[in-house]
Amino acid sequence: MSKTIPINKNDYIDVEFEDLTHDGAGVAKIDGYPIFVPNGLPGEKAKIKVIKVNKGYSFGRLIEIYEESKDRVNAPCPIYNECGGCQLQHLSYEGQLRAKEKQVRDVLTRIGKLENVKVHPTLGMEEPWRYRNKAQVPVGEREGGLIAGFYQKRSHEIIDMQACLIQQEINDKVVQAVKEICERLGISAYDEQRHKGTLRHIMARHGLVTGEVMVVIVTRTQDLPHKNQIIEEIISRIDGVKSIIQNVNSRKTNVILGNETKVLWGEEVIYDYIGNVKFAISSRSFYQVNPEQTKVLYETALQYADLTGEENVIDAYCGIGTISLFLAQKAKKVYGVEIVPEAIEDANRNAMLNDISNVEFAVGEAEVVIPKWYKEGVTAEVLVVDPPRKGCDEALLQTIIDMKPKKVVYVSCNPATLARDLRILEDGGYKTVEVQPVDMFPHTTHCEAVAKLILK
Ligand code: SAH
């Protein structure tokens, strides 16, 4: 039988935190039994209250810190505790980078059973604030006025927000401007409960390199009252605005964008660059939200691919072709695969935009398309994967093992599935040479890493 649980709900106990969970809570152990406490930091001694007790683990609330970590800082954001968008602002940036490196190293050992893999220090930002190039903000009403901000943690209550410290400043400015303009013109906010009202979300996108701005107004209704006045005022207040879009979302859903997009003014897309590759970004396109670190991530992938110009490369999970186009400049040919058809349309358009012709994109599941290519004789010397959080499908990993590309570059947004997949590839004949964590989302617990594997 299992050991008895050493604590009870509502107990107050003293603990010392020894680790952080992947979602940023402090971990303490009582006779080996773990308790997770939001806001606790490794090395801290504290009094906590036990909130919930499960068989193998429990949750607590921080009551008092007796001894603070030297890495504890005051979160600079005034709404940090209510918002939940960031989870690590109370940890120094240096501490965050070390925690992400440790998280990668720990899962490689624990889940991947990989000893002696070189994990480099996390590549962080010099200025880890104001990095996001896209804001999507829900709109509500309070005492007759409009509010726009974020949903309070674990609720659907909108809290008004003037500024988000991880958002590029221009995006804050767009949100404030559209809110003020619409309020003055008497536009109603969407009411989720009654499914009434007009304005649902304000979205802003910014090309960091080009300075171009897109404003998207998401409405429940086809009609946007005072449309021309709204357009005029946005143009006069926002520098760099190139595109004003209305998106109609009449459904009862918490998905932000609806299916209908109308260009109210200007272009359908804005442009941006990552390195020297130019991208067209529409209101619906997926585009990495931290462009500065995206460049760092892709340069790491490029360095690990170590191309000479003679190689065929496969880019699985290619999205709008960002990594493919980056690699194509140094490869003989790049084949990209992606499941979302619109993303492949963007990828083809982006290839043309940059006069890159040695790429070929296909719509489909990587685990179906790549085995089919392999049967037809399409192989690659270098294979890049950048899967969603759940990692690679086993059928894809098996095809990699059969196809035997000399190098595999694994770009991952989830260290746990990365470690699981690296183990499968190791058992199939690959060696993990090195892993580079890259901080794409400072102050949040998201952890991105690139791994280099070579065929043994
Ligand atoms: N490499 C791109 C996108 C990475 S995000 C970039 O850096 O921008 C992961 C992508 O995998 C998403 O675009 C998602 O639509 C796609 N995807 C998810 N499951 C897939 C599957 N089974 N086969 C191919 N693509 C898939």
UniProtKB/TrEMBL annotation:
<protein>
    <submittedName>
        <fullName>23S rRNA (Uracil(1939)-C(5))-methyltransferase RlmD</fullName>
        <ecNumber>2.1.1.190</ecNumber>
    </submittedName>
</protein>
<dbReference type="Pfam" id="PF05958">
    <property type="entry name" value="tRNA_U5-meth_tr"/>
</dbReference>
<dbReference type="Pfam" id="PF01938">
    <property type="entry name" value="TRAM"/>
</dbReference>
<dbReference type="InterPro" id="IPR030390">
    <property type="entry name" value="MeTrfase_TrmA_AS"/>
</dbReference>
<keyword id="KW-0949">S-adenosyl-L-methionine</keyword>
<feature type="binding site">
    <location>
        <position position="317"/>
    </location>
    <ligand>
        <name>S-adenosyl-L-methionine</name>
    </ligand>
</feature>
<dbReference type="GO" id="GO:0008168">
    <property type="term" value="F:methyltransferase activity"/>
</dbReference>
<feature type="active site">
    <location>
        <position position="413"/>
    </location>
</feature>
<comment type="similarity">
    <text>Belongs to the class I-like SAM-binding methyltransferase superfamily. RNA M5U methyltransferase family.</text>
</comment>
<feature type="domain" description="TRAM">
    <location>
        <begin position="6"/>
        <end position="64"/>
    </location>
</feature>
<dbReference type="InterPro" id="IPR029063">
    <property type="entry name" value="SAM-dependent_MTases_sf"/>
</dbReference>
<feature type="active site" description="Nucleophile">
    <location>
        <position position="413"/>
    </location>
</feature>
<keyword id="KW-0808">Transferase</keyword>
<dbReference type="InterPro" id="IPR002792">
    <property type="entry name" value="TRAM_dom"/>
</dbReference>
<feature type="binding site">
    <location>
        <position position="288"/>
    </location>
    <ligand>
        <name>S-adenosyl-L-methionine</name>
    </ligand>
</feature>
<dbReference type="InterPro" id="IPR012340">
    <property type="entry name" value="NA-bd_OB-fold"/>
</dbReference>
<dbReference type="InterPro" id="IPR010280">
    <property type="entry name" value="U5_MeTrfase_fam"/>
</dbReference>
<dbReference type="GO" id="GO:0032259">
    <property type="term" value="P:methylation"/>
</dbReference>
<feature type="binding site">
    <location>
        <position position="338"/>
    </location>
    <ligand>
        <name>S-adenosyl-L-methionine</name>
    </ligand>
</feature>
<feature type="binding site">
    <location>
        <position position="386"/>
    </location>
    <ligand>
        <name>S-adenosyl-L-methionine</name>
    </ligand>
</feature>
<keyword id="KW-0489">Methyltransferase</keyword>
